[in-house]
## 1
Amino acid sequence: MNAAQKNRLDWLLQTAYTAWRLFVKNELANHAAATAFYFLLSAAPLVLLLTYGTQILARLAETSTLASMLLAALYDQFQLAQLAALGVIPQKAAIAAGGVGLLTLLLSSRGLVKALQSAFRVIFPDEAKRNFVFNWTLPLIIIPVAFALVGLTITLQAVINFLANVELLGAGRSHLFKSLNLILGIGLVWSLLYLVLWRMPLRHPPRLPTLIVSGLATLTLGLLYLSFGHFYRVEKYQAVYGALGGVVFILIGAYLACVAFYFWAQFLYALTKVDVAALEKLFLGASEGVNKLDSIVFGRANRLLAKYGHPFADGETLISEGDASREAFFLYSGKVGLFKDLGGQEKRLGELGAGELFGEMAYLLNEHRTATVRAEGDVTALVLPPEMLEELMRYSAPLARRIIGSLAGRLMRMNQAAKG
């Protein structure tokens, strides 16, 4: 395995570890439980309305062959017989209850979107707020529209399935229709997850990582759907909860799906913060309680050195006094001297060794460089752009305290040296 492959492996391991740590810290399992509850409330009225539709279609099927075929396809695609057996939908439904179902759908949709927004504010922290009108109208339309798209897609799948089962088409075209059916379902889920992951955060993540992560989330949900029945048996829940056993069974499935979805959302955030997390561990080292597992995952600095590292020869200047640059430096190895121009003569103020962060003063105080920093021997330093320093201070309170403390101490030493 070459250096580039090792760096990619380190990046993947650090991203997954950061995502898991944030997932636990943000208590996303609790958010998943709330989302699953509102999902069940939102799905129930839609299933009920679907039942009304099938009843009307059943009456039409008495005189229409096309209605009969469509009804059979709907039962197959929506698995209405299984849902009725689980007790999720009634065997017979009064058409007068449709208005109540729509009202429940609108109210529960608002709760579902609010649960999503609450989780995403934790996953993708941002101090900004959405427009008030948009914030109130979005929950009332997004879920009905999403479920309408799902219904349309499943109806198209029903038609494709019917065509795939027509013997006159031949085996080749039958397999083609079945493949189109599968692609259509996967594409719908992938698209919905992409839209949610990209549009729900106030600060939209990059498109390509969002597309990849939404694809991974789709794959995870597909595997979860295929394997769920092997590990959870609805009969056991029906034996304990009676008629509600099927509802509890579906609620558990929705909860596991929400857990998987929120993990991948957290993973998407970790993709944009993995360098910040690795730099934090490197800067703090063992001084701020970095545990053993952190040391193992973030122990190799090769990836950071390849991305941010710069070598400096003996006597080479890293920072020039009076310069308007804003980069910060972390001294990975070697030693640098601090010099200041006092009355036309350069005076040595001190030195910094490996493990020191410097150069942040110009960015934090929005001033020109106050001193010259020069390598004394061979030096390797990580050069960080201003936005990375800002991200580091936002991400890590211990690191922010350390930066402020070292800045205050350095200012005091420089004042004392200048007076002396």
## 2
Amino acid sequence: MWLFRSALTVLVYTGLNLYIGARIFGFVRFVLPGCKGFVFWPLYALFACSFLLVFVFRLEHIIPLRQAGMYSLAAFVYLFLTLAVSDIVRVVIRITGRAAPDPRLSALMSGAALCLTLLILVYGAFHARDIKTRHYSLSSDKTIGVPGLRVALISDLHLGAAVGRKWTARIVNAVNRAGPDLVCIAGDIFDGDLELVRDMEGIAAELRRIKAPLGVYACPGNHDVDRSRLNEDPTGIQRIAAFLKESGVILLLDETASPAKRLYITGRRDARPIGLRQPRKTIAELAPPSGPRDFLILLDHQPLEFIQASAAGADLVLSGHTHKGQFFPGNLITRRVFKNSAGTHYGHWQNGVTQAIVTSGAGLWGPPIRVATDSEVAVIDIRFGEAGS
């Protein structure tokens, strides 16, 4: 079955690229009549397969090549969408007889699709770097001794080839502007290969600038695996844990901390760390014994077990992972997938007294763009019942 699916994926991808390439070649021949197929097609094949070349031949450390490969993935999506729309328009024009068939129309529409794709990529690249702040106001009948609590939630930094110190500084600035009591990082702090991260000490210094009286807590995500050192550390987490400790971040690996009286934070290991099979405790096993006034925050990278969290008595679940699809039409896909998983791909979720917030993430993975989604810091204001003693 796996082999069949892989073969089908290759056939579909190849077919779509032949369609895109033929349309672009028509435009190129319109602009440069002397252009030959034996020149165009090898160059286009290099573009279409650049991301595969990077990963198959382990060329991730050549950052410009890796970035070009990631942009090619996004370009493929938008070229296909814009060319498909242009073909539909051409068919409608031909069927309705609103204009006589013109061989130049196809080339001109292909050129327009190419220009629109370039504009989308440029917009997406700049938009991804603009860190937004999303505010939520929640209430709880619990009484933990204070009238309210402000939590800043960040997730999916994906520190690596695309996200470095400058990006981290923008995230930290957005967090500090919010003035949180507590900061939670819901996984995917790294992008898997720590060797791709430049200026680790500088990034640690930026994270130490976070101002939160009750501390900074994190759980790992599926990308938080130090794949470059698995021969030395089969868990893939030791260097990451050391980095976070140096950065002033408390990493919770199926553990619970109590930053204040009657306030608990539990951080789960990830369900599917990339390339590893590691057991983790159930939410019921992790939930600490709590009184009727205790408030439990659960950090769980993937928003897949909200019902179990509700059954275990968690008051607030904080997750990321989905990126809200990162760029259109990915947001439509993640919406469907996580709705079917009895959760949500983004925003607020509630079941009884249990509430959850899923953030779109502060960084990004793969194509370094965002379209129809934001890089964000989620700021959550929780209002409690009358303050108890």
## 3
Amino acid sequence: MKLEQNDEALLFSTTKIPDVFFSEYLTEASGDFIKVYLYILFLSKFNKDIKLNDLAKKLGLSFPIIQESLKFWENLGVITKKGTGFIVNNLQEIELHKLYKPNVSLSAEDIEKNEKNQTRARLVETINNSYFQGIMSPSWYADIDLWFKKYGFDEQVMMALFNYCFQRSALHRNYVQVVAEAWSKSNVKTFSDLENYYIRQENIQNIEKVIQKKLGIARPLTEYEKAYIQKWSGDFGYSLDIIEIALKKTTSKTTISFDYLDKIITDWHDRELKTTDDVQNFLVSIKTLNKNKKELEKKVKYNSFEQRTYDNFDNLYANSQN
């Protein structure tokens, strides 16, 4: 693997790292990835050839880590694959290109309007001073403008977005984008929307804890199990009282299945059962149906139509007890 630098050779043996590396790339990369970048940056000054196996041995890293590191920096545009080697690109040129390339997401009218918005300008400056020690990279300004346009957040929500990510030691562009997407999908635009979102999320977390306790699950819930709970509480709007009715249906089962619970709760939602009374009345009607079916069995022989009607979905919640 040959390494080149697409900049003029340095006169003295000094490896220079532009400040933009610390403001734009450092927080997104793992320690091993940074280690690989710094070493290939050093080697690139001399147009050195080095095999990946030798690079792994030199840095004390595994071969897969070396491969992952190179792929990571390549995806960011920091290095460019060329034949059997890589070109180490100029980070300042990369950021300059990001800053001045045409932005099809924002019109000239929108940009001018944002520039004249003094409230927004003060907010961006507050973000700069509070979370970037006053040295926020210029590309963040463009990102913030884009997020205002894309998500329709008000200034308080944008400030809360940066504070949320900062408090979790994850103030890098990809994470901020993921959080912003999640808030937007939950229809968060104003600070009042955000407060309601936090209340819903806290409610869902409380439901998760209750379900874990009721089902005797000592381990943390998986992402798939949490997605089910989000569906029942967030999408369906079901309270814990309704979900607990479904939990009681697992008492006769030897293994706990969130899929089984989901079938029951989704069935209630499809039947437009909205309250605990709706659910309880429905279960009473099913219990009556099962009772009538047993009485009918004593008098007449099952026919194929009856078999198909009552045997689906675990005989429609077994006997619908409780």
## 4
Amino acid sequence: MDFWQHCGYHLLERATDGHLIVTDDYLRFYFSRPELAPVAESCAAERSLHQSLLDAPRRPVAAADLEKLADSDARENYQVMLRFREQLLAAGTLERFYVNLFQADVAVPPDFIHHTAEVILRGLLDGDDHGLRARAAEVFFRTQRVTVKDGAVMLADAETVDLHAEDGGMGNLGRMLMQVQAPLRAMELDVLDESSHQEYFQRNGRRDTVLQINPGVPGSLALCEVLARWVGHFHGLKVRVQPIREIPDEEWLWHVGLDIEASTMLNEIYAGAEVDETRMRRVIGLFRMDFDDPGALRPEMQGAPVFLGLAMTADGVLRMKPQNLLMNLPLARRA
């Protein structure tokens, strides 16, 4: 099943470990971005540089080449892109590049970081024909608007919601979102479930499906599976993730917040601080991660689970940070 055709996944090659190798075509994909595409006002030097990089995307570009560009914005865009290119090529694979971003102070536009996560996830889901897992993977790299209504925790793509927030008329889900100050124009946002998950592949580019993540529902289980694949891909470890309703005190030795809000709140609770009920209601997902190989964890953690949390901001937004699962697990050794 093909999806996310726009992301450039098919332009990459795979290493023996399944990681994604940067190719010339993938670099061309980036040099073709609108930020670098010449416009009517572009000077001859800019046009020449752009064409030369499409022809040979690894060609060296000297500072003198950039100084020839008449437009200062174009010079800055090329500086950013060329720095990004060098980091990609030095890493060799998208996975190593992504990990390097969080081990050093690397200046990369957030859009490039999110896109890299998207492409890696596309590789993880290659051959998977279940739309719920593909929709759950979007949570890793696209901001979500959270709606909690009658106990149901729903995630909708924030950009889609914002684009259609001028007026309403969307049926039941539209009315629900309007009641929590997220009105939308006439369009459809359908909650995916086991009976409708195939619809995702017919409309994945529209970002207009909703994921329900209450413990035990199919959307939550799909998110657990993607979390497990993400950890397995980067760390080479077999883990099992399951949704839970609360963290048992007697087992709580380690936690990882999957976003800034959850990290802050879980740290406070673990330290014994009181968190008021209003803030606690922002927690929208708790998960338990178990490792098949206890020796993968530090000695004091062997055999113990790691608990994960998701929380929304006060205005109902979820911005997941999947890199926390790369940097903050209590592993005996880092991959």
